[in-house]
């Protein structure tokens, strides 16, 4: 067998390394490109086609279908409207005719549902029929009535309901004048609200579906109304821009198949920042003790081995530990000491933002410890000796000389911790992240930052959406868009940490 010379071995090794790096880069770029292409479909308007199925000479079914729909959803749309079962081998294969219809409108509702149809007329309470060009005037009238209804519900009905509840708690009699007065006012404003609801229900748009059947849509329920088949390039770009703004600023709708992901985006960033604030000082202190103070013996070696092995523990184990220790034990103890009046309704004894941040800090702690200790090893001994020679104590040397020099290593650990914490799902499901949280952890109520509340996380949102919307084209495209947003968030957080690390390296290391 021929032996390769040293230059040949070096050439083969370089070629193999370059090939491996190229393959890895291609796979990574392909994955990112696939996510971007799939996620972009959520923001770009899809053309709508009229699909007519002729099963038999006397059986014809027509539906409006967007071009982004997949075959499973299309078959489901047909099976909902056809009495015949295409799976029956006795039936002939259906004839399908697809045609583009420029007159069709896409009606996006406030709750996230989407309907398609040809516009026919606008109905109002005074029996006048308006054309679509006059829709803005109708929308303005509806907005006035909606504001009036909101004002009645907020400033009158809610206040009166609270007063009546206080009277019930105080044991005031049914025939007491105070109760009768409040009930009279409540009935009056309730009737006013009901009249406004009835008036709002009389403002609607009539459309014709693909089968020629009319259906109505309330004006107050319409979010967007446009014709996707006749949109210009500028209109599509404008639509995509508005869709992106809606995506990052609104809450999910229609079982997380439409709307936005702002609560999940906010919860992800807040949890990661809290985790970084917790893990950075504790990781640095642990690394300083192991490298600067702990004796070089068997016990220290065992501790280092345990820290390294902790990085390989499955994340769900940290979730179970966080649920058992942080939530039930520590949180239950806090409730017993500080919130005993609220028991048995727990405050900190349930999964929440703070326990999620602590659990993720514990999960990423080994990474920060190892990176920080590696940075401490790179500090030249001459710097320590010079500091001691100038009369500094060990603590002063570590704080003013060693730590600044090792700060890039600490930031490296924080970067790795952010990257892992932003994408974890299993532990967060156990310790505080939910698929939908009605209120954010931050609001205008004291103490403003509510660490005990549950929160939404992009990783959990993507997992739940992908699990429940596997055959829903719009829902799956939203999940890919969420993946794209999560990659962008991780990139921005890492980029910020890298900039800080480079500035620290330029200031303390390259001297």
From TrEMBL:
Q: InterPro entries in the record, alphabetically?
A: MetI-like, MetI-like_sf, Phosphate_PstA
- GO biological process annotations for this chain's record? phosphate ion transmembrane transport
Q: Which UniProt keywords apply?
A: Cell membrane, Membrane, Transmembrane, Transmembrane helix, Transport
Q: How does it sit in the membrane?
A: Multi-pass membrane protein
The record's annotation in SUPFAM superfamilies points to: MetI-like
**What transmembrane ranges does the database entry give?**
12-37, 261-290, 302-328, 348-370, 402-422, 478-500
**Any idea where this protein resides?**
Cell inner membrane; Cell membrane
Q: Tell me which residues make up the ABC transmembrane type-1 domain.
A: 265-497
Alphabetical GO CC annotations of the entry are: plasma membrane
Q: Which GO terms describe its molecular function?
A: phosphate transmembrane transporter activity
As for family, the record states: Belongs to the binding-protein-dependent transport system permease family. CysTW subfamily.
- Recorded protein name is Phosphate transport system permease protein PstA
Q: Which species does this protein come from?
A: Brumicola pallidula DSM 14239 = ACAM 615
């Amino acid at each position: 067998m021929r032996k390769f010379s040293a230059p040949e071995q070096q050439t083969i090794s370089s070629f193999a390394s370059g090939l491996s790096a190229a393959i890895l880069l291609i796979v990574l770029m392909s994955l990112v490109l696939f996510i971007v292409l799939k996620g972009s479909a959520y923001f770009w308007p899809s053309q709508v086609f009229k699909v007519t199925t002729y099963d038999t000479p006397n059986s014809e079914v027509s539906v409006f279908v967007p071009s982004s729909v997949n075959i499973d959803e299309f078959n489901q749309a047909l099976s909902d409207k056809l009495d015949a079962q295409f799976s029956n081998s006795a039936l002939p294969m259906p004839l399908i005719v697809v045609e583009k219809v420029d007159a069709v409108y896409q009606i996006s509702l406030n709750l996230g549902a989407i309907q398609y149809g040809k516009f026919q007329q606008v109905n109002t309470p005074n029996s006048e029929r308006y054309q679509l060009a006059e829709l803005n005037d109708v929308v303005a009238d509806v907005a006035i009535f909606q504001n009036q209804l909101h004002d009645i519900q907020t400033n009158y009905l809610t206040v009166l309901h609270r007063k009546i509840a206080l009277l019930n708690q105080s044991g005031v009699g049914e025939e007491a004048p105070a109760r009768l007065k409040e009930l009279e006012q409540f009935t009056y404003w309730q009737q006013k609200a009901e009249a406004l609801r009835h008036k709002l229900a009389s403002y609607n748009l009539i459309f014709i579906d693909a089968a020629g059947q009319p259906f109505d849509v309330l004006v107050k329920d319409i979010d967007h109304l446009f014709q996707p088949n006749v949109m210009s390039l500028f209109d599509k770009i404008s639509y995509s821009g508005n869709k992106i703004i809606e995506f990052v600023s609104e809450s999910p709708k229609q079982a997380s198949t439409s709307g936005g992901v702002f609560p999940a985006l906010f919860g992800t960033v807040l949890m990661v920042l809290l985790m970084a604030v917790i893990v950075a000082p504790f990781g640095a202190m642990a690394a300083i003790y192991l490298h600067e103070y702990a004796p070089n013996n068997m016990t220290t070696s065992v501790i280092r081995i345990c820290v390294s092995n902790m990085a390989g523990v499955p994340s769900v184990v940290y979730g179970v530990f966080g649920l058992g220790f942080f939530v039930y034990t520590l949180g239950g103890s806090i409730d017993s000491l500080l919130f005993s009046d609220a028991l048995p309704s727990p405050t900190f004894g349930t999964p929440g933002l703070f326990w999620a941040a602590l659990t993720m800090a514990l999960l990423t702690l080994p990474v920060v410890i190892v990176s920080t200790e590696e940075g401490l090893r790179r500090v030249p001994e001459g710097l320590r000796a010079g500091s001691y020679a100038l009369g500094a104590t060990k603590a002063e040397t570590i704080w003013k000389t060693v730590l600044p020099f090792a700060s890039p290593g600490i930031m490296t650990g924080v970067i790795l911790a952010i990257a892992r914490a932003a994408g974890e799902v299993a532990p967060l499901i156990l310790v505080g992240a939910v698929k939908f949280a009605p209120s954010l952890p931050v609001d205008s109520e004291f103490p403003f930052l509510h660490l005990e509340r549950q929160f939404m996380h992009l990783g959990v949102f993507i997992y739940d959406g992908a699990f429940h919307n596997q055959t829903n084209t719009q829902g799956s495209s939203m999940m890919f868009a969420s993946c794209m947003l999560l990659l962008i968030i991780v990139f921005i957080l890492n980029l910020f940490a890298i900039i800080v690390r480079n500035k620290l390296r330029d200031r303390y290391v390259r001297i």
